[in-house]
Each structure stands twice: as C-alpha cells, then as structure tokens.
Amino acid sequence: MEVIPFVGATLGIVTVATVVAFIDWWLALQVLAMAIALQQIKDNLVAPRIMGNLTGLSPVIIFISLLLGARLGGLLG
Fold this sequence. Notes:
mainly alpha
C-alpha cells in the first residue's frame, strides 16, 4: 500500500490493525504501535541515509530539508 502517495502506509497499517482487532483487540494495539514505530524508523533514519548515498548529500542535510519542506509546504512539502 505504500506505493499510494501520502496515505498508503496509513491505509495499510489501519487495514491490518482492523483485521487483527476482530481476533484480539490487545494484539491489534500492539501491531499498530509496532507498525507506527517501524514506519517512523524507516522514514526518519533509513530513508535519509539511503537518499544521502544516492545523491551524495549528507543524511543530516536531507533530513533537515524534509523537515523544512513539511513545515513550509505542509502535506505537499
């Protein structure tokens, strides 16, 4: 689902958590928490490092530019 821009990852996480909630609601909360944690690690640590290797820029510069883009441009930034 992550190929869908902006909302794909969220839709995937919510779909899985909903299916698991029919089995066990506590397990669904654990799955949701772990999925959010892994998504944050991927978006904030792994992706800037990979982009830095591909572009030759420092991961710190890429991370700061992502933060500034989000701050200035909102969701589209």
